[in-house]
Amino acid sequence: MRPRRKPLGLTSKFILVFNGIAVVVLLLSYLAPFIKPQMFWPIAFLGIAYPILLAVNILFIVFWLFRKASFALISLIAIGIGWSAINKNFGFNEAVPDTLERDTSTIRVMSYNVRMFHDDEGKDAQNQGDILELIKEVSPDVLCIQEFYSRTKGRNNMRKRYMEELGLNFSYFIPSARNDYDAYGIAIFSKYPITSSGNVDINTETGIVNKIVYSDINKEGKKFRIYNVHLQSVGFKQEDYDFIKKDIPTANVDVKSTRRIGSRLKLAYIKRNKQIDSLYSHTKGAKTPYIVAGDFNDTPLSYSVNKLSGDMQNAFVEKGRGFGITYNGAFPNFQIDYILASREFNVQNYQIVSKKLSDHYPIWSDLRL
């Protein structure tokens, strides 16, 4: 006679219900890359919450393995369905060796949001030098910088210093704001001749740092285009960061602050939606292989990243290792910087330089054309 199954207790039943809810929400997060925030913005929040949803479901698996192993399949199957989402957030490739010998036949592309060279302790002059030395160590052929700051003359003419000290003799700099003394904006530097440059119209207001620029580059007869991207920032104020750091961890959540933060995120999602659509259309007109690098201000399971990645190679997915965290500020501590390459390129490696000199970590990749 078959032994009678022991019924679930009340606590286990409640946990099973919450497990079911967690699975449904996780499955919905897989839709975030495919739905325009303009059409249905709430789904975008699930994309940014994916790492948390994944962790919750893993905890349910562990719980059921000790209670009723068959129920662990509920979350396990849900996670398996979204395996591609795991690959976008966590790299399983070999680490780049410290003694990597430079292959001069490749194009080393680097992207770095330098936060106008500000550091957390107000030692901006020292930080300028430290960032310059870091870039020297990487020795990129093409450098995309977001939130770039430069004075018009003197030691702090960073545009001139980068060209002279890094051997990046060609540059394209579009200021978001400038005067007779200094300027800040977005810049492309190259060791190889820049034959033409321009910007992608994304309808940003004057003084806003978010821009998309491009340069056509000729490396010894091989022509390609590089896009430097800085998509819409969330625009958190100090009160928002204070709320995230102090109130949320202590469960002191007030409705006003929650709505304010939600509203900022919603607006940023919708703006990035429009900006990435403009960029996507522009890339379709490129007559050469092209690279898109920069600060997307969006996570791997977002519409903006997925829109471009569908036709391109994501250097992190191809060659990255470990958690792809590129933002080290207060929120969100996720991967928001990317290097994407059209199919003509072969991605050789990818590296996140985990040295905190800005609120972003620099990233670089060697690409063969």
TrEMBL record:
In its UniProt record, a GO molecular function of this protein is: exonuclease activity
**Which residues belong to the signal peptide in this entry?**
none
Q: Which InterPro entries match?
A: Endo/exonu/phosph_ase_sf, Endo/exonuclease/phosphatase, GPI-anchor_lipid_remodeler
**One biological-process term from Gene Ontology?**
GPI anchor biosynthetic process
GO CC annotation: membrane
Q: Which residues form the Endonuclease/exonuclease/phosphatase domain?
A: 110-360
TM spans (from-to)? 12-33, 39-62, 69-86
Q: Which CDD domains match?
A: EEP-2
Keywords, ordered alphabetically: Endonuclease, Exonuclease, Hydrolase, Membrane, Nuclease, Transmembrane, Transmembrane helix
Q: Which Pfam families match?
A: Exo_endo_phos
Which protein are we looking at? Answer: Endonuclease/exonuclease/phosphatase family metal-dependent hydrolase
**Which species is listed as the source?**
Albibacterium bauzanense
